[in-house]
Amino acid sequence: MTTTVLPSTEIITLPSDQDASGRTLGSEEIAAITEAIHTGTLTSTKGKFVKTLEKRFAEMIGVKHAYACASGSAAVHIAIAAIDPEPGDEIVTTSITDMGALTPILYQGAIPVFADVDPKTWNVTAETLEPCLSDRTKAIIVTHLFGNPCEMDAIMQLAQSRKIPVIEDTAQAFLAKHRGQYVATIGDIGCFSLQQGKHITTGEGGIVVTNDDALARRLFLLINKAFGYGDPNPDHYFIALNYRMNELTGAVALAQLDKLHWSVQQRQSTANQLSELLVGVRGIETPYVAPGNASSFWKYCLRVDGDVIPGGAVGLAKKLKDERGIFSAPRYIQKPAFQCQVFAEQRTFGNSRWPFTLARPEAVDYSRDKFPGTFSGLESILVLPWNERYTDEHVHYIADSIQQAVSELAN
Asked: What is the SS3 assignment for 69?
């Protein structure tokens, strides 16, 4: 397949997932919200939309239990609280992730222990996780970054050998598959986000899933202030917040759910097309997806070789933006999560530094030499925005722009 070369002066505006141009929102969502308003019942404790969403989502991915909540961060917090760590217990997680997946660990009094990543996929692996485990490890969180599944067979084998539960952060990985199985259904709990830029959106929102009945009970309670709705003698059984999704959000999510398979298929089709168009471009590596896996391509990520392309990912990003109007994110996050002030300076509750005061020194050792994959991975990554509204024209425009930019920078 060859790219259609466009005049260098022609600029195409790409659809954006931050507005209607890159989203599937439309008449179906409007009708659903209208129906919800007309019922006059906007709380999910008495309404039908959130309950229907939970049932249909569970059926879609083949899991026993699904519960909707207020956000993706709430989903992670609920999952961690369901595991019920003791203060000072450790939860091993990735060094490259959103803060919304990390602060819940601290709120539960646990210590985040950061694992290095594979610089080719930017995901944790069994090999990077194992050195981080200790007798205080309460859970492992794996993040399927950019929609690309982690290598779950080896991770689950490691976790099960140590009897450690696994939480899958699938905020970016709706309908991604590992060896034919949907991610989020492999570990003990899966967490999804419905934030503005995800595969389907309600602005904010989340879903937690599990096949474990006991964990499902805790997930339900943790969304509902630990109040036992439906119990013979309900009470508030333990400390928990109100993380419920409202019926308006549930109505939008339900309408969006009908479009999810199409959205993911569109992202996969156009991403694969771009990878074909970029074959042979010097200094560029297209996304690596392990054989047997299927990425849902939340974003499209290039590895940029700074030895071949002067300026590396930063230089390429600037040229694409300045000359072709293509916005991208070199490095994805500007520094590893553990270099953010909340961890580096242990800024938590007042001046207490709690729960870091309970941590083993090894658990909070963020020495650079422990994270070679993290630093090299962030140095080389260029994250291109991606959404289901991309067409052949958009893909060819991006491919032509990258080829032209690389040719000019490398010479």
From this structure: strand
**Alpha carbons 272 and 392: distance in angstroms, whole number:** 11
Catalytic residue among 48, 138, 198, 370: 198
The share of the chain scoring above pLDDT 70, in percent, equals: 98
Taking only the tens place, the pLDDT of each residue in 310-334 is 999 999 999 999 999 999 999 999 9
pLDDT of residue 330: 96
Whether residue 265 sits in one domain with residue 252: no
Q: Are residues 207 and 275 in the same domain?
A: no
Tally Cβ neighbours within 10 Å of residue 191.
Answer: 29
Does residue 145 fall inside a structural domain? yes
Query: Do 153 and 272 sit in the same domain of this protein?
Result: no
- Let me know if 198 is a catalytic residue: yes
* CATH for 142: 3.40.640.10
- Does the predicted TM-score (pTM) go above 0.90? yes
Measured CA distances, 382 to 54, 264, 266, 267 (Å): 35, 21, 21, 18
Alpha-helix runs per DSSP H in 224-360: 247-257, 260-277, 312-324, 341-344
pLDDT single digits (tens) 234-285: 999 999 999 999 999 999 999 999 999 999 999 999 999 999 999 999 999 9
DSSP, residue by residue, 252-265? HHHHHHTTHHHHHH
Residue 13 covered by a domain: no
Give yes or no: residues 254 and 275 share one domain.
no
- Predicted local confidence at residue 10, as pLDDT: 84
In the chain, how many domains are there? 2
